[in-house]
């Protein structure tokens, strides 16, 4: 009965197709569920401990409840600003070199170095700055933390700015060159202004990433329970505070760790969400 | 493209000295990036030299990590338990994350309509933005109790009677152990493997897919006979990048892995260390020159291993991308 056989095979093929679709959909649903689960837990556990003191006071000593993590928020902001001040010129400069001038073996090496640096485990960055700066020069300090964050930010900025610069149509460059302006003027007054929003989003992306980095700060900035504006001394940071509180034995500190995590992912989420949205729109417009 | 490059070269060479100065300036900026990479390797190698010279290969194969000299025990740095922890957690992570990421990638790029696929991919890729320490606190307070109370007893019931596999689940379920470390890592590398797999699946020439569909193949047949064979190398590359990230991941693992250098038992329910978590836990204690040197050597090992996987991954992925460009020409 060949006819029945054929129909059976057809059904089997359809069934296999359907099964594969269901499995793939389930796996995707599971992946999405994981994100909602984690973010949900952080929101539910974090909301309870958020109050004005949390943002304005420094931690209370062991056993006393209350207080906040103002010094950690301050430390994160200070170190991010210093790190950005170091990383932006090198990141943007590298991207300009790669896109506008780069050719030959040296440019390939630069590109390769950026890739290697971008994928370096962040704790290795911590070990590097620890061995170089902390042990020899400054001890645990805000400046060492800023340097570690800067090393993490440079390749991120370089990569995203490179991508953005490549979106600038060459006709724009050629037009400006044809008017007799030197190359550097073309880059600074034509190319960069055209993509300035894109460059800023690249910088924000790097900031978002650096804001959440813990391991490199652990080995460099170390953390601090008090306000400290001196870059030569140990400095607090939000991720460090979360880690210290989470692994402590006190319930009050656990709650504060959840609340700090909520604030941290809110900051990171706003920064990187804005970036994704902005770059997508921007890319659409330029095409 | 080549015409444009020639134009650029022409512009650089012909123009006035200010152009040369500007080019030199940005070239210097980018030279700093190269210097950084070279500096990393040299500094870590120099600082770990005392440890390398004293312990040599024993550093990688010895299983006694004893930083404090006593009358009975001599100072000894054998990092095998850390290396073992890194390997086990990374393998667990890879086994869990690859099917999840690949299935999700297939769903969003081949099966789902784009109004559904795009947001799903966007949401899963948001996982990459969550800081490591946030995974850590979630792992410590949510995942660890769940593993200890539910998953690990369940695994013991199911696998405990099977000859070889029972060794994997031997001992009391701690919750803070290698298995939980691997699960957290799996979640963290999921978005990495997913987004790269999506990119690679998108490279499969449309003609091949449409050709099969026109012959009456089902979507699954197109996928299994045209898409996946084409994308295989790239997907392996994607998994390898995930592996590279798992190897270097520190905080989340440190918070759930238990941090105790017990003997290597073969059970996934043993608390342990990874190389990265050993560094994070012990750097403050490095009071002697040799201890310092041994910790830096751990960093060096991490740097080299992660970089090798990263570069291999990129080679695999770029081969797929290059093939696409060739096919379109």
- Tally the beta strands of chain A: 0
Largest sheet of chain A: none
Largest interface: A-B, 91 and 96 residues
> What's the CATH C level of the largest domain in chain B?
Mainly Alpha
Distance between the termini of chain A: 58 Å
CATH topology name of the largest domain in chain B, in short, is MetI-like fold
Structural class by SSE content of chain A: mainly alpha
Query: Which runs of chain B of at least 5 residues are low in confidence (pLDDT < 50)?
Result: 1-7
SSE order of chain A in H/E notation? HHHHHHHHHHH
Structure commentary:
The complex is a heterodimer of chains A (287) and B (329). Chain A is built from eleven helices and no strands. Chain A is mainly alpha-helical. The longest helix of chain A has 46 residues. Chain B is 75% helix and 1% strand. Chain B contains twelve helices and two strands, in the order αααββααααααααα. A two-stranded antiparallel ribbon of chain B has the order 1-2. In chain B, helix 5 runs antiparallel to helix 7 and helix 8 runs antiparallel to helix 9. The two termini of chain B are 13 Å apart. Classes of the chains: A mainly alpha (287), B mainly alpha (329).
Note the topology.
The complex is a heterodimer of chains A (287) and B (329).
Chain A: H1 2-47, H2 52-56, H3 70-101, H4 104-118, H5 122-138, H6 142-165, H7 170-178, H8 183-211, H9 215-218, H10 238-246, H11 251-286
Chain B: H1 2-14, H2 17-55, H3 58-61, E1 65-66, E2 76-77, H4 80-111, H5 114-126, H6 132-159, H7 178-202, H8 206-214, H9 219-248, H10 251-256, H11 275-282, H12 289-328
Antiparallel strand pairs in B: 1-2
Helix pairs in contact in B: 2-12, 4-5, 4-7, 4-9, 4-11, 5-7, 7-9, 8-9, 9-12, 11-12
